[in-house]
Amino acid sequence: MSTPMLGRKPMTKEQYERVLPPLRNALLAAQKRMQDEKSFALAVVVTGRPTAGRSETVNEFLEWLDPKHIRVHALDKLRKVSRTWPVMWRYWNTLPARGQIAFYFMGWYEDYTSPALTQPKKSQRHSERTLERIRQFEALLTRNGVRVLKMHLTIDAKLERERIRELRKSKLTRWRVTGEERWLARHHDRATKVTQQGIEATSRPGLEWNLIDGTDPQSRSFAAGTALLDALEKGIRKSAANKAPKPKPVSSKRRPFPTSPPEGRVEDDFYDEELERLRGRFALLARRGKFARHGAVLAFEGMDAAGKGGAIRRLTSALDARQYNVIPVSAPTPEELSYPYLWRFWRHIPQRGEISIFDRTWYGRVLVERVRGFAAAEDWQRAYGEINEFEQELTEHGLIVHKFWLSVSKEEQLRRFEERDKDELKSYKVDPQDWVNRKLYDQYQLAAHEMIARTDTEHAPWTVVEADDKKYARLKVLRTACEQIEQRLG
Amino acid sequence: MSTPMLGRKPMTKEQYERVLPPLRNALLAAQKRMQDEKSFALAVVVTGRPTAGRSETVNEFLEWLDPKHIRVHALDKLRKVSRTWPVMWRYWNTLPARGQIAFYFMGWYEDYTSPALTQPKKSQRHSERTLERIRQFEALLTRNGVRVLKMHLTIDAKLERERIRELRKSKLTRWRVTGEERWLARHHDRATKVTQQGIEATSRPGLEWNLIDGTDPQSRSFAAGTALLDALEKGIRKSAANKAPKPKPVSSKRRPFPTSPPEGRVEDDFYDEELERLRGRFALLARRGKFARHGAVLAFEGMDAAGKGGAIRRLTSALDARQYNVIPVSAPTPEELSYPYLWRFWRHIPQRGEISIFDRTWYGRVLVERVRGFAAAEDWQRAYGEINEFEQELTEHGLIVHKFWLSVSKEEQLRRFEERDKDELKSYKVDPQDWVNRKLYDQYQLAAHEMIARTDTEHAPWTVVEADDKKYARLKVLRTACEQIEQRLG
């Protein structure tokens, strides 16, 4: 951890007034450049004791910078609305876009400090998992265009007590002291220890904490401003130097996925009856009281014309339209591109008791973006880990996550393309891009193999569905979805 | 109300198979054109008995159209998260952008039907208010680029009972019948009456209901598809013919707002002490238990350099950063322009217990957009009523809404511009547009007069703040905010 801001001598008023204007000028200039270039975003986490100047620091930043491109987020751990979604949902939903700055008051650290302070024994495992989640999250942001600047404001126990006493003396300032502050002051040592552990556990190269001494307001302001300027300038320099490496060529060969039903074609009569039976089973599962405490994410991937849409409609026709959402995923819009790539999926994560069905997913990163070269090799290669972490987040919250790869043969795909071309009603379904993708069929297969090998986890498994027979595929999808939900509900 | 879809003869399978393909072709073509032109959005509300084919209709639309530009929303009235925000928040947050279609399962009518059915006596006034709100909302959407298509599926009592009996007979289909459906079937007449009243109360020119007979599935599908096609084609024709009328010239003259403090300049000592006292009062108010059941929206308008930012910072410095959000409002982005103009403000409405402070607001419509001619006369002229309705929505939910007009004289404004120009740190604050706006000072004054005259309501009042003396203005803002909150909390 970097501690360059600690132990400085107090700043005189004259010193402060001399050094501040150039700092503010530099900050404004850096912010302007950042806005113009839109090459990175900045998330600033400000933690520390309230009496060390937490609020004051954020307020000063708002005064120094152009506030039009800044958001301040104060996320209350107790907010009911947040418990409806996975913990990280609220951070994803407030991320700054490239060119923008967001200040997070306590940020995602409150998820760690609060329980660690108030229930120190009970929460050992919870704390460790929370710190791991924070490390993963910050690493993911850093690698995806969001710089993270962390500042922790410190103050010693004696001065903290003095400040509180001073404020409480006068009617005019007594309101400034909350119950939380007094609690923290009474438990200064414990709070310091917990914080220290959190800081040590989350300091990584490029993600160091800035410890800022809150003893003297002028030194504090100047130190905080300097740290912010440094982060902005590093962001600008880094993005100027940034060149995307070429993707590695896809080379090795693997056995293709099965595409035909192992038991042969499904008969029409059997299909009709079995479909109705499975839909009933699925509908009843989704209506079970226990399901309301969970919810599900069903993800569909597969080559064009593999039958994703048809399989999805068989699922949804069993559900009340109030309970599900189908999310068709296309190429990202310019707005979506200005955020980390998982951002646009977090927006569609279901509440408890609901079902989100993704027609194409976050796996686009390691499929189309990899094969077509839309993502740099280092970007899609690290995506496996990021995706596993993302799905773990969801399942830890209680969501049931299951993924389907609809496997269609090259021959059957061609047959379906031609059929669509002939059928005026389906012709909108064939995109010129589909033919380009078809030429890359083998590379897609390879990418899919690697994807499944690396992301078929216990908490979020894949099912490969032999999709040359549409009826077989639809039944298998429904049956698997039922089995998975039954298993998780117990 | 239009009833062309009722009383048709059942359609034979042959008839259906003959008429369907041309209908689907026409629907796809219309959807494509709508997407390309992006001149309007379509919100389709589907209500009616479940056994009349509500779900089936929405599912068919998804099959017939290109689903990539469609969203289906099923809004559960019981959802906790919704009670955190005003009722209409969830509809605003799911509106389709121009070029897109959204289906609303029961839509905003569930807010009316549910209480009217289950608590018929208690809710008379509530029902009337809800219907009024629906009328206003639909009118606002229609005038702001969102076409509204309403379909109600009917079925007679006998057939409804038969269908339910039939479905319940077999294990395979029993799951299709929910408790709600059985309740509705038992109370067929009452439900029909309530629905009928709702339909009559909300049928307006251009917002007629399509009553669709659900007796025969094929007639139903065809009727629903025809109604959808009609809505799409009307939307396309209308937008092609649409020409914005020229804004009326601003002419009449009014007495200017006061700009100097009535009691003379505020002395520094008094200011410091009074500011601290008021901040304490404000902070304590925001922390009162009762405030957690309310929340506040504080809106700031005024000419450039009127001191909005400074006044806002004096308010926020009294608050815990977790409790408030400052929302700086700039010119709308292209994304924002593809929605009705109030959409971007709904997104920032606070939850209960929180405070949203708007630095410029939805009044831009009747200020800058009027004066500069960015909005057509008919658009800004009807905005007064729409804004009053919007603010009433907020206050009915319990939010405290107060609006400040910071009134600065032409001379003082010039002095501040020049001061900013000299001060390097503040130079980013002066935009070339500010000088253009300054030339239109008198027209802004006139627009502001009319704005306050038309929107100074009991539930959401304006306070004109004499802002030539910054210190006086800041104290008056803080004092007024305190008084208003105290008054509302009782």
Automatic annotation (TrEMBL), chains A, B:
<keyword id="KW-0808">Transferase</keyword>
<protein>
    <submittedName>
        <fullName>Polyphosphate:AMP phosphotransferase</fullName>
    </submittedName>
</protein>
<dbReference type="InterPro" id="IPR027417">
    <property type="entry name" value="P-loop_NTPase"/>
</dbReference>
<dbReference type="Pfam" id="PF03976">
    <property type="entry name" value="PPK2"/>
</dbReference>
<dbReference type="GO" id="GO:0016740">
    <property type="term" value="F:transferase activity"/>
</dbReference>
<dbReference type="InterPro" id="IPR022488">
    <property type="entry name" value="PPK2-related"/>
</dbReference>
<feature type="domain" description="Polyphosphate kinase-2-related">
    <location>
        <begin position="267"/>
        <end position="487"/>
    </location>
</feature>
<feature type="region of interest" description="Disordered">
    <location>
        <begin position="238"/>
        <end position="268"/>
    </location>
</feature>
<feature type="domain" description="Polyphosphate kinase-2-related">
    <location>
        <begin position="12"/>
        <end position="234"/>
    </location>
</feature>
